[in-house]
Design a protein that fits this description.
alpha+beta, three-stranded antiparallel sheet, five-stranded antiparallel sheet
């Protein structure tokens, strides 16, 4: 009977000492989980309204959710009376080691997040960056995939893209096509400009606003060079580029305007 009474007393003492802590820990966990769920829902709605990339939404949501859950678990353990200083130190050390090991990847991740938030370009844009030109095919967390004019897949790290210069040819909705056409010095400049301008205005893909332009650009060694500059939509760039050269050649030939080219003259000596 005495042994039983001792065990009962110990049980009562245990419940008296740890019961409130356990109940408090359970309540903190339940309330904390409810708050985390609500915060995750609010964050999801905010990102949806901000039109963030879907992959970024999922990643940020998971990152914030797991961060809050880890904080909640540490709080619950602390409520039970367990010393959490050592646990926090271990977590910090592990985080530092992982950060050093993945330094390059973390840089690319940070660059991907910045690109998805500030959107210097989007899928379908024609851009130039890190010495490459192409249409954006896919924006991932760590890399951006481009398709070059030669239909080659180019994969560029997001860290380099976010920290370098980016030229977005699509962002303004129109792009200027720069071409140079040379004619002989004996040709009439005014007539040549009219012929070249007619080529541009007759092309349906060339925009009327801004208006195309034809101007004398250079007095070269063997030709008068004209800057022929139509504007078009970015997706029509190459169509207008190639058509301008071809149509200008045909129009100049029809108008009898010479396009100079290197040629040799044979000299006959009398016997």
């Amino acid at each position: 009977m005495e042994n039983a009474q001792v065990w009962i007393d110990k049980g009562i003492d245990f419940i008296t000492e740890y019961g409130p802590k356990v109940i408090g820990a359970i309540l903190i966990y339940m309330i904390g989980s409810w708050i985390i769920k609500k915060l995750a829902g609010v964050l999801k709605k905010v990102m949806a309204k901000g039109s963030y990339d879907e992959s970024l939404q999922r990643f940020l949501l998971n990152l914030v959710t797991w961060g809050l859950k880890i904080f909640l678990i540490i709080t619950v353990i602390s409520t039970l009376g367990v010393e959490t200083t050592s646990l926090a130190a271990v977590i910090a050390a592990a985080g530092l080691a992982v950060g050093l090991a993945l330094q390059g990847s973390l840089s690319n991740f940070a660059g991907g997040v910045l690109i998805m938030i500030f959107k210097p370009y989007k899928i379908g844009d024609l851009i130039e960056g890190q010495g490459v030109l192409g249409v954006v095919k896919e924006i991932e967390i760590f890399t951006t995939k481009l398709v070059s004019p030669e239909n080659k897949l180019i994969i560029v790290p997001n860290g380099a893209m976010a920290n370098g210069n980016i030229v977005n040819y699509t962002a303004e909705g129109k792009i200027r096509v720069d071409t140079v056409i040379g004619v002989g010095y004996n040709e009439d400049i005014k007539k040549t400009k009219e012929v070249l301008m007619n080529v541009l205005t007759s092309n349906e893909l060339v925009l009327k606003d801004p208006a195309p332009s034809v101007n004398v650009m250079e007095l070269a060694d063997s030709s008068v060079n004209f800057a022929v500059r139509p504007f078009c939509k970015p997706e029509h760039y190459w169509d207008v580029y190639f058509a301008t050269y071809e149509d200008c050649k045909l129009a100049l030939d029809k108008a009898g305007i010479e396009i100079p080219y290197p040629h040799s003259v044979e000299i006959h000596k009398e016997a």
